[in-house]
Structures are given as C-alpha cells and as structure tokens.
Amino acid sequence: MGKRIKIGSEFISMTYPKSKPWMREIYFGGRDGTGKHGHISASGAMVVGEVVSAETWYARTIEGIELVKNGSEVTNNASQLLSECIPQPLRELQHPEKPLFWNIGSLDSFFSSLKNLFHNNIIS
Prior knowledge:
Order of helices and strands: EEEEEEEHHEHH
Strand content: 35-45%
Radius of gyration: 14 Å
Mean pLDDT: 83
Distance between the termini: 21 Å
C-alpha cells in the first residue's frame, strides 16, 4: 500500500510493505521526468523522548549519495545532509533533536490525511 503527493514541482510518496509492517519506504524528488529520487527506509518503533519513532535504516539523496546504510551513518554529517535534502513537509516529521528518527504517528497521519488536503486544494 502506498500514497503519493505532489507539491509544486516535487513529489513525496510512502509505501508500507505488507510483509514488514514496521517499515516505511519514503521516496521524494522532482517531477521533472528524470526519475531521480531520494529514498528513506524508516524501521522499527521505539520511544524517543515522548514520541514513538522509527529510525532511518537507509537514506539516499536525489543525487544518489548514500547517507545511511544498514542503520549506520555513512558520512559524519548524515543527519544534517538528510535534513537539507528532503522536502519541507518531511522535515516537520523528523524528531526535533534526532533527525535520523521519524515520528511514526505524524508520518502516518500526514500521508493518510492527504485525501482531505487534495479536496481542499492545499496540495496539488
């Protein structure tokens, strides 16, 4: 199952693999016909502060630069680079103090509420 939104010249999509309900596969990129896209795999469910979060298991920029692989940062500044390369709506779903963690409830709510956003012309 997956959901996809368009924000101006960008897209963001998220899939939930049926065989791995703890995973969220997030893709983002330009709607320019090149097919280039970033990819984030968020996995698990743990409490970070007061938020149920999933950790970034894999992250790749639109340019194909791997930032996180098998749950380990590939570069020293992976958190910063990830925050800089993702679309604004995704930045708001990162844990405020730990950008490699994602608020699962907010992430799921964001994508499940898209139907209402489309009808209200907020996102097109």
